[in-house]
Hints:
- Helix content is about 25%, strand content about 40%.
- By secondary structure, it is an alpha+beta fold.
- It folds into 2 domains: about 1-115, no CATH class; about 125-140 and about 155-335, no CATH class.
- Strand 15 (about 285-310) and strand 16 (about 315-320) form a beta hairpin.
- The longest helix has 22 residues, at about 255-275.
- It is elongated.
- About 25% of the residues are buried.
Amino acid sequence: MATGVTNYQCPACTGPLHFVGDSGKLECDYCGSKYEVAEIEKLFADDEAASLEAQKAAEANPEESCWSAEELNGMKVYNCSSCGAELICDATTAATSCPSCGNPTIMPSQFAGGLKPDLIIPFKLSKEDAVAALKKFYKGKKFLPKSFCDQNHIEEIKGVYVPFWLCDCQVSGVAEYEGTTKRVYKSGEYEVTETSHYNVVRGGNIGFKKIPADASTKMPDNHMDAIEPYDYSEFKPFSSAYLPGFLADKYDVDKETTMPRIEERAKNSFAEELRKTVVDYDSVTNGREDFNIDSADMKYALLPVWMLSTKWKDKNFLFAMNGQTGKLVGELPVDKGKYFAWFAGIAVPLMIILGLLFL
Length: 359
């Protein structure tokens, strides 16, 4: 069934608007006009309301759809309000661009009711920033094949507002450790090593604010975790006016499914903080841990991520960059020839030295 969408168009020339991080405003691709987020949000409020009504009407009359239930499995069909073209999207897509006219397109129904995010961090860095960061990421990588830099091309680059759950929680508990100290002294002709063993107990409680966990099955969790942290001081109340020019998804991983990840992160952080208090021992071994977690407030937020995909020798390499801070992560190929040459350069001289020592 075709449903309604909203196109943010320039009030001056009807050209497409997109959000620009440098200015913090929506800018027109054609005439260069700039608008405050609140101004555009107010101007297009009626359009969003009309889009929601259009979807309700379409859902009430499914027989009007030219798509079968099988064809629409996991997909949604929208009509571009600018050119009328049909947009066939993943069921979680909330912002995209029309392939026919290129206008940024928002699906207000994806944020209706309880699906509306509480917070958003707008994109601060541009596509050009992401490309420059990737090139910089290549530099200084000793084992990176030279041909990778020369021959690989960016297959795809997209700015995505990724859905996250942010959880406030309180962790309390007790951890035990075995600490040892050693004292070496002379006793007659002998050197004596005296080892003392201690049972060390630490306990306490820590409150955590807004522990993040991505709520999209499309995004690799390890990449999303690695590009943290975000500067939470730049959170804004959610507005769909920040979305034009970028992709956005609604969550497809609910709160309950996400909680084990969040709890694991909270426990690990709590354990690290307790461990830091165990000092003045020569060695420390972790023992029993008994932690309790009380979760409280849970917020739904959209965070900015640049996803870059490159291809080299028929293999895809995925990179993710924090769209606010610029932190970039990803896997790179290894030149085995360079690696073994380096290893040989270290190992052979070391073996010669060891051989001389034992002559």
